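Q: Sequence in, structure out?
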Amino acid sequence: MAFIPDPSVAIILVNWNGFDFSVACLESLRKVDFPDFKVILVDNASKNQEGERLKIQFPEIELIQSESNLGFAGGNNLGMKKALFDGYTHVLLLNNDTEVAPDFLGKMLLKLNSNSNVALVQPMILFHHRPDQIWSAGGKWNSFLGRAITLGDRKLKANYLIKSEFLDWATGCCMLIKREALVEVGLLNDSYFTYFEDVDWSLRFVEQGYQISFAAEAEIYHHAGASSKSKHSEGTLSPKVFYYHVRNQLFLIRSHVGPSSKAFAYGYHLLRFIAWMGYFGIRGRFQKFKAVAKGIQDGFTFPIQSPEKWQ
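A: Exactly. Output:
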């Protein structure tokens, strides 16, 4: 890695009532063999003083305590602002429900610095409980339907054929970004709160002329859905998950689908959402029914703020 000009990396972790996951993630980060990185942990107003407890157990981290839950977008933005203020050359977003291979960061940096036009890199993300199975090998964007497709989803790593090293979008579960590109493109869009903010962000990088690359040799392991799964009277996923999924899917269409394709994209997704509502109605899951309906309404009517830029 001698050709990399003194890189320094700020790793942003957002914790929201996920203490045990964050502990496991931070333990794995202690084994990372890259010398110059700092973990900035943003606690999103968790219960039971989780941020303070994590700081006691891992004194090497920098803790930012948010007074309210700012969501994935807002929480990561807090951490990124601190990283940029402190002068780090690279920022890495990492879900707290992941564990990493010791060499993942060095391999991601090698990929990022192999091409000056690449601004963002995603590693190979495998299921924690099945490390031979892919959770995400990056993303493809169908601009006609406004559909974000996860590549490699649930395929065996040994059998997966990588068609291109370049991606249309990278998942916020783990992405490494160059400072100068981040300053130019701006932060995550707070309007999304959670879900699809990573797709929106990636598409903004591409629209600015940057490329996104896939570092297949760099591996992390994901406890998929840890933040969205909870005990609920209507099933594992809460109505809020469906609300944000529906609303933000419509945000994506409004922001990134051209005029000639918008009608097709809206039609495709509205058929999906109406089918969900029909299913929830038949099953008596009326909170989820209402959440989808509210997501459709707000997806068309809520103003989408311009993403904040760091000065």
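The first strand starts at residue 9 and ends at 15.
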